[in-house]
Amino acid sequence: MAKVSVYDMTGAVVSDLELNDGVFGIEPNTAVMHAAVVNYLANQRQGTQSTLTRSEVSGGGKKPWRQKGTGHARQGSTRAPQWTHGGVALGPKPRSYRYTLNKKVKRLALKSALSSKVIDSDIIVVDEIKSDEYKTKTIVAMLKALGAEKALIVLNGVDEKVIKSAANIPGVKTTQVNTLNVYDILKYNKFIVVKDAVAKIEEVYA
Prior knowledge:
Blueprint: E1 2-7, E2 13-19, H1 21-24, H2 30-44, H3 103-119, E3 123-126, H4 136-146, E4 151-155, H5 160-166, E5 172-176, H6 182-187, E6 190-194, H7 195-205
Parallel strand pairs: 1-3, 3-6, 4-5, 4-6
Antiparallel strand pairs: 1-2
């Protein structure tokens, strides 16, 4: 089992923690992690882009000239796609880009992402993260003590004071165990996780 140090908010080592190899010690599968990231980004798309077809642009009700005898190519409307101000042929319409991944694939991707953080020594386990008031300075001081700038902070539950204290720090995001995803784990350089959250992750994914 991989063993990591547990820090407090001042950056001092308070204990050691053994991580479950079934979650934090597998061989990372890059193909599966890529699939999970693509899936996450696709599911974030609003899909609200829209273009007007020839039937939706204004004007063009009258045939511009008679069918035969003018020397021109035949035209039925000045709002056909080849005309200036005409409609768009085969353009995008509002649609959902959402699709789901196999549950086993999602679990493997998350374990792979967590294991890659352990391999790269980018996981930092903190005994407890708390803030008595809404104070950005408290979280900034903790990050500085832990040597982390661009970091994902994983809490065991919703702590409004910690979440709002970290909300306006560039390159820092807070999340909870139940909303953890591969994209966020890989995006941020450091993975700062509360000791209780590690136990919860192992309970769910081991």
